[in-house]
Design brief:
The complex is a heterodimer of chains A (311) and B (409). Chain A is built from 10 helices and 14 strands. Chain A is α/β, with parallel strands linked by helices and 311 residues long. A 6-stranded mixed sheet of chain A has the order 6-7-8-3-9-10, with helices on both faces. A 4-stranded antiparallel sheet of chain A has the order 2-1-4-5, covered by helices on one side. The longest helix of chain A has 16 residues. Chain B is mainly alpha-helical and 409 residues long. Chain B is built from 15 helices and 4 strands. In chain B, 28% of the residues are buried. The chains are: A alpha/beta (311), B mainly alpha (409). Chains A and B meet through strand 6 of A and helix 7 of B.
């Protein structure tokens, strides 16, 4: 199945400054795609190009196989990082206007609005002006306005900023529900927990270049360091360590994980060539193994590692 | 505000007229000390000035009384020869001298002394008065059509009024465009909107929308103005009817009506269709030109306070247009200055409109409009580039150099 969005060799420059240097990515249909990167990396420039707010200097972007053109505006929903609404306009009126800008008819827009107001439990706000709402409430409206026209592709830039934990969870559930209905979602965030929870694909952009791209699991496999967190009750601890250093190539360090008992907690890195099975067998010979889990690199770790290794 | 403004303006006018008349109703009391009665015939009390003869009192007593109970005192010394009055008459007052009063007194002295001199020279004053001519030359165009001085006055008023109107509209509505752009920038809704609509369309939508609002307001004012005018003539008619019996009033009102009718007929002799159409065209052209600037400025800055530094270069050409209009066009509607400024696109909406009532050859009109619209397209293109980049730029206050860089993005 072809990807819903293809970014091909996009270059964007502002005067002497290169914001995007030959960036290519492919966003699979129906996925939740995390766009990561430090501030100033070029994420927002890329997002703006996808939304046709700016044009690339070189390269192209394909939506569903077609070169981006003005008719695609109705197929994309965008919630920018710095977002706002007309302060003295009423909620209902404003949402209708923005939906119509995206190509919805007034009638359909109204129906959709009522659906979402019901769903997010904000029915009473239709006639209120934006300035009368609290920040969290305004953010909910912002979300509704973004998804109202049922686009195929949704782009969220820092969607959770400004939401308290309850509402953040609400939005998260809505995003997952939308994905389940077939919408593709790109989101750009610094909240690595959200990426872990929700994304199935990621891309990392740093200093105008794309450094990582792929399924989250695949990326993690790439970064696996073959380290295992081990909990063992070895009888004589010193004897165990002595044996391990003399007879094996295993490198161990202190580990930090929680168990109910007070056993020895270690982090053991496998040398090249050995398997986890061998390690387990070895350990079982020396005591009760209470805990044996591969340490999976977190996105946070991957991010920091990648970003700091590049000069 | 649309409906209130003309009412407010008329109200202001009426108030000012009323206050002026109140002023005129004040009676000035002036004392006279004229022992020989030289100026007795000349200084006559009028509705505004009451002369009180204190010649019976000695001078010092008269002065004292005058300083306490009168505006001032006219002291005519008891000279032997009436011609001495030219330099010897004094007006003593605690207030600064009332120009009109002093003028009247001096006129009175002039009259008295001139008559005396002429009599000395054996000239009959009465006959000389009769001999004075009061020329009224016959004005007409080459076509044989009669023209009147009042026509010129009317043209000045209409031309000036239109020029001023355009300047006001451009400033008021241009400001609306700018404020709208800045508002969208500060509340951050702009990014959402331009993900749906191209910035150029957004900018043009604002400009066209506010221009239509401006035209609508203008039409409402016109309708109200005509309505008020008709109402006034109706009231006028009614007044005449009620006082019809008094022959003096009939005569005076007839003259006034003639005057008004003269203005009305002159009004209808003006190229009204040309004026109306040209007004609309120049309003649109000039407004689009200037509001593109306003939109670009709005996009470049982050707040209204920052916009102040850019406002002056915009308002200057407008004011220049109005000044050139009032000073050069009125005196020399077809002179070089007026013609040149009616072609320069920044000032042409105002200056050309001021010239039109005086009659402008079609080719000049066409040329001026063509230049205006060509420039307008250029300015819109240029402003759109700045608008497109500026609306997403926050932070630094941009300099002109920065904005030039944006053109290349």
């Amino acid at each position: 199945m072809e990807p819903i969005l293809e970014v091909k060799n996009v270059v964007k420059q502002y005067g002497d400054y290169t914001a995007l240097n030959n960036v290519s990515l492919q966003v699979p249909r129906g996925s939740i795609y995390g766009l990561l990167g430090p501030n100033g990396a070029g994420k927002t420039s890329l997002i703006r190009i996808i939304n046709q707010i700016t044009m690339p200097d070189q390269g192209e972007v394909l939506l569903d196989g077609e070169k981006l053109n003005p008719s695609h505006v109705g197929h994309i929903g965008y919630m920018p990082e710095e977002r706002g609404l007309y302060k003295s306009m009423k909620v209902g009126e404003q949402a209708l206007y923005l939906a119509q800008l995206k190509g919805l008819s007034k009638k359909v827009a109204k129906e959709q609005l009522e659906y979402w107001f019901e769903r997010l439990e904000i029915k009473g706000w239709w006639n209120k002006k934006i300035q009368e709402l609290s920040k969290g409430m305004a953010q909910k409206i912002q979300f509704v306005v973004t998804v109202l026209h049922q686009p195929k592709l949704l782009i969220f830039d820092e969607p959770f900023s400004g939401f308290d934990p309850v509402n953040a969870n609400l939005i998260k559930d809505e995003i997952l529900a939308l994905r389940d209905k077939g919408t593709t979602i790109i989101f750009s965030t610094h909240r690595m927990e959200s990426v872990e929870e929700m994304c199935d694909h990621i891309a990392l952009i740093h200093q105008s270049n794309k450094l990582i791209e792929g399924r989250l699991d695949d990326v993690k496999k790439q970064y696996r360091s073959n380290t295992f967190e081990v909990g063992i009750a070895p009888g004589n601890i010193e004897q165990f360590f002595a044996h391990m250093s003399l007879n094996t190539q295993y490198v161990s360090g202190k580990a930090n994980f929680k168990t109910l008992d007070d056993e020895l907690k270690l982090q053991i890195t496998l040398p090249k060539g050995s398997t986890s099975r061998e390690l387990l067998q070895y350990l079982m010979q020396h005591g009760d193994v209470t805990y044996f889990v591969e340490k999976i690199p977190s996105v946070n770790d991957i991010f920091i590692q990648t970003v700091s290794s590049k000069p | 505000m649309t409906f209130l403004s003309p009412l407010l303006m008329v109200g202001m006018g009426v108030l000012i007229a009323y206050l002026t008349s109140l002023n005129n109703d004040e009676i000035n009391k002036i004392a006279i000390h004229d022992v020989k009665g030289w100026l007795k015939d000349e200084l006559k009390s009028t509705s505004n000035v009451k002369y009180n003869d204190l010649s019976a009192l000695p001078l010092s007593a008269a002065k004292k009384e005058a300083s306490e109970g009168y505006e001032g005192i006219v002291y005519v010394p008891a000279v032997q020869n009436v011609t001495e009055l030219v330099t010897k008459v004094e007006y003593i007052s605690n207030d600064s001298p009332n120009i009109e009063l002093v003028g009247n007194i001096e006129d009175a002295i002039d009259n008295k002394v001139t008559r005396h001199n002429l009599k000395e020279l054996n000239f009959d004053y009465e006959k000389i008065e009769k001999a004075k001519a009061d020329a009224k030359i016959h004005l007409s165009k080459f076509s044989g059509e009669e023209t009147y001085k009042e026509g010129s006055i009317l043209k000045m008023i209409i031309g000036g009024g239109m020029g001023y109107l355009i300047m006001m509209f451009v400033i008021i509505y241009g400001n609306m465009v700018m404020r709208s752009v800045i508002e969208e920038k500060t509340n951050r809704i702009i990014e959402i909107i331009i993900s749906s609509v191209k910035p150029f369309k957004l900018m043009m939508g604002k400009i066209i929308g506010t221009s239509l609002a401006g035209i609508l307001q203008f039409i409402i004012w016109c309708v109200l103005g005509v309505g008020l005018f008709l109402a006034l003539t109706f009231i006028f008619d009614v007044k005449v009817g009620a006082a019809a019996n008094n022959p003096e009033v009939v005569q005076a009102s007839k003259e006034a009506m003639d005057g008004v009718q003269l203005y009305i007929s002159e009004f209808f002799k003006l190229p009204l269709l040309t004026i109306f159409i040209s007004f609309i065209i120049y309003f649109i052209g000039g407004y689009f030109l200037y509001s593109s600037f306003y939109a670009a400025i709005g996009a470049a800055v982050d707040s209204e306070t920052d916009s102040q530094q850019f406002m002056l270069p915009i308002i200057l050409p407008l004011m220049l247009g109005v000044y050139v209009g009032f000073f050069s066009v009125i005196s020399e509607p077809h002179g070089t200055v007026a013609t040149v400024f009616s072609m320069i696109p920044l000032t042409s909406p105002i200056v050309m409109l001021m010239r039109i009532p005086f009659g402008v050859p079609m080719w000049q009109l066409a040329l001026s409009m063509a230049i205006l619209f060509a420039t307008f397209f250029g300015v819109v293109w240029f402003a759109a580039k700045i608008y497109r980049i500026g609306i997403l730029m926050y932070g630094k206050k941009p300099t002109y150099k920065e904005m030039m860089k944006w053109m290349k993005y």
